[in-house]
Amino acid sequence: VTGVQTCALPILFFVACGFIVNRLIGRIDEQNKALSQELEKAHEMQMRLMPESSPQISGFEMAGICRPATHVGGDFYQYFQKHEGNLVLTLADVTGHGMQAAIPTVLFSGILQNEMEENVAPDMHLSRLNRLLHQALDRRTFVCCTMAVLDLEQKQMTLTNGGCPYPYHYQASTQSAKEVALDGFPLGVRPQSKYDSIELRLEPGDALVFCSDGIIEAENKQGMFGFEQTAEAIEQAASRNASAEEIIDHLMDSVDSFVGSAEQLDDQTIVVLKVLD
Questions:
Q1: H-helix or E-strand containing 113?
Q2: Which residues lie closer than 8 Å to 193 by C-beta, 6 or more apart?
Q3: Which of 203, 163, 207, 154 is nearest to 183 (CA)?
Q4: Are 87 and 79 in contact (CB under 8 A)?
Q5: CA dist., res. 226 & res. 223, Å (int)
Q6: What digits encode the pLDDT tens for the residues 27-60?
Q7: Closest CA to 44 of 64, 63, 62, 68
Q8: What is the pTM of this model?
Q9: Which residues contact 248 (CB under 8 A, 6 or more apart)?
């Protein structure tokens, strides 16, 4: 009997352990499911900060896309139609990834909404946003931001930039895409930073393409997608008179083809403004 008991005890021990492990696995599965649902809700809320549709403007075509690397991220874009007949386009990229970047992005969105109540030049908007964000954010967090104001009647764009990749100006007359070089400190880094602006005359068939650094810095084993391939992809699409949405699709497809099976490491955002013929 003693021998039987001796053999039975380990079996009972392993059965009990198996029961406990199964219970723990069940609880972990439930917690993971709940966490996944919460992250999905957070994703939906963040996406609602951005346009559900593009503005319908006579003579122009606009489109935008934001693809976070995880459920939530730090990229953001928005349009604001002003009473003066202008349209303001803003693209921003908060430092960090995931929830670390998502919370400052929500803060930035609210501050930007209030700032758009004022009728000032884009360089002044960035200066004011910079001071407010320097007060609100910790010293390790800042916001790269580019802002463009489109004069709908004159078909002229005024650009200012705070740390984002240079926008690309595709000119139909030359069928080439060139970077619009405009530098500035990211918002929140230095409270007294000043921002320059540049004016562009837009002609029929032209396109302006704004990208976050997740496009430029997309990687495979050979290296980064880079500025030149970004320009080439824009030229390939725009030279065949692609729509704003088709330019985005082609650029995204080019990035995905380059990256292959590699993991998306950063949020990816593109906004395109096209002048119709």
A1: helix 98-115
A2: 127, 130, 162, 184, 185, 187
A3: 163
A4: yes
A5: 9
A6: 766 665 655 555 556 556 766 778 988 988 889 9
A7: 68
A8: 0.84
A9: 63, 64, 65, 270, 272
